[in-house]
Amino acid sequence: MIRINHNYLKLRASYLFADIARRLEAYQVQHPGKEIIRMGIGDVTRALPAACIDALHGAVDEMARDSTFRGYGPEQGYRFLREKIAQHDFKDRGAQVEADEIFVSDSAKCDTGNIQEIFATDIRVAVPDPVYPVYVDTNVMAGRTGVFQDARYQNLVYLECNAENHFVPQLPAEPVNLIYLCFPNNPTGATITKEQLRLWVDYARHHKALILYDAAYEAFIRDDRLPRSIYEVEGARDVAIEFRSFSKTAGFTGMRCAFTVVPASCKAYTAEGKPVAIRDLWNRRHTTKFNGVSYPVQRAAEAVYTAEGMAQVKALTDYYLHNAAFIRQAFTDLGYACVGGENSPYIWVNTRSDSWAFFDRLLEKAGVVCTPGAGFGKCGQGYIRLSAFNNFENVQKAMDRIRSALI
Ligand code: PLP
After folding, report:
1. How far apart are the first and last CA of the chain?
2. What is the pLDDT along the chain (407 residues), one digit of tens a residue?
3. Domain membership flag for residue 126
4. Which residue lies with its CA nearest to atom 1 of ligand 1?
5. Is the CB of 107 under 6 A from ligand 1?
6. Phi, psi of 8, deg, nearest 5
7. Using CA atoms, how far apart are residues 367 and 194, in angstroms rounded to an integer?
8. What's the number of domains the chain is made of?
9. Domain, as residue range, for 349
10. Do residues 321 and 222 lie in contact, with contact meaning Cβ atoms separated by under 8 Å?
11. What atom of ligand 1 comes closest to residue 132's alpha carbon?
């Protein structure tokens, strides 16, 4: 008898997006032909930077000739890309990261989901609430949680993010071993200061814990005082892994390229307390289960670091940030408290009502789709997430309609 991993039965179906789709369908049946504006999506909408397209074409031409053709590449990524990442994303910003500490992959979703498998199943895991669901669900699959009860999984430590703590979690009251942090945050759009991040690094060092730092939205940071990498904090190299992605930075959601940084000095421990280099374990895992990102895609990612590429990426993220500022201002003017949208493409709006009721209201009255905050965790109740990934004309139209609907 083939038996299943019973932990999969603990998973909740993805109610959030299924529910949104169901309500949308019902609305469309009742209002045929009515144009709907989607402000809930976390997917980019604008074309790739020209520098990436040029590099992509060049690489495709190389693949067309026997003399320049490339087959399997290094699983960890080509040297040309890893060196550019180390230099531009870290060393130029004063963070010490070497090329051989960078693992290029096809997805930060996969990496943030897969990393947990190299750690023991009986560790204590802390996740923010609200949260990017991948962190939670992959720990459920691995058997680190109990059942889902009262909107939460048993055995997980939830780090509450709310208006009182400005959506930056406080250190947990009980010791934890693995900590997920994400800044700029999805879904709240909140950011963390270097001083706040230092508290977490010190905590992790003191408790021999590990921080999984998801910086997928780092490219949206405009405030120079904010850290763009956890490695800007002293001592973080020993206790933190950082995840990055070209998805939101350079519009690569349909291209697939990301990377994970595992510093050489980052350690986990055997049951006897003997330190083990996490980089070696992740390298073993990566080379066994992953076969590298395609050559043309890595060349396109490399082009992000050329002078033109950097200017184009800046223009692209500026465009979305302009949308974000517009959305935030519109809701603020209507009297709603907002977070995010300043160094992030997401705006987290306190609706002062039930998340789903507000979702229905925006859909019914304005034909605008948002994401109900309750879908990201207990602390998301009462909020909605709006995404700035759209064209500006749509954003303007959506805000006009919302203004008329809510006034
Ligand atoms: N991390 C966060 C916080 C995200 O919001 C997303 C995508 O929405 C990802 C990671 C996934 O990135 P990728 O496209 O590289 O898989």
Report:
1. 61
2. 999 999 999 998 776 888 898 999 999 999 998 999 999 988 999 999 999 999 999 999 999 999 999 999 999 999 999 999 999 999 999 999 999 999 999 999 999 999 999 999 999 999 999 999 999 999 999 999 999 998 899 999 999 999 999 999 999 998 999 999 999 999 999 999 999 999 999 999 999 999 999 999 999 999 999 999 999 999 999 999 999 999 999 999 999 999 999 999 999 999 999 999 999 999 999 999 999 999 999 999 999 999 999 999 999 999 999 999 999 999 999 999 999 999 999 999 999 999 999 999 999 999 999 999 999 999 999 999 999 999 999 999 999 999 999 98
3. yes
4. 216
5. yes
6. -65, -25
7. 40
8. 2
9. 6-47+309-406
10. yes
11. 3
Please, are residues 365 and 378 in contact by the beta-carbon 8 Å criterion? no
And the tokens for 355?
Answer: 């998340």
| CA 108 – ligand 1 centroid, Å | 5
Listed residues 307, 341, 376: the one ending a domain:
307
Strands (E), 55-135: 102-105, 125-129
For residues 43, 288, 215 and 107, what is the CA-based torsion angle, rounded to 10 degrees?
-10
Output the residue whose Cα is nearest ligand 1's atom 12: 108
Q: Is residue 157 part of a domain?
A: yes
Coil, strand or helix at 378 = helix
Structure tokens, 128: 């923010």
- Of the three residues 285, 307, 329, the one that is the final residue of a domain is 307
344 pocket-lining for ligand 1 (C-beta < 6 Å): no
Provide the CATH number for the domain around residue 110: 3.40.640.10
Whether 203 is in a domain gets the answer yes
- 365 C-alpha vs ligand 1 centroid, how far in Å? 31
Nearest CA to 60 among 405, 310, 242, 300? Answer: 300
Q: Is the CB of 385 under 6 A from ligand 1?
A: no
**Predicted structure pTM score:** 0.97
Tokens encoding 308:
């033109």
Q: What radius of gyration, in Å, describes the C-alpha atoms of the chain?
A: 22
**Quick one: 201 and 291 in the same domain?**
yes
In a shared domain, residues 177 and 241:
yes
Q: Is residue 152 part of a domain?
A: yes
Which DSSP helix (H) or strand (E) runs through 213?
A: strand 210-214
Residues 278 and 161 in one domain: yes
Question: What gap in Å lies between CA 371 and CA 21, rounded to an integer?
Answer: 11
Number of residues written out for the chain:
407
207, 172 contact by CB (below 8 A) = no
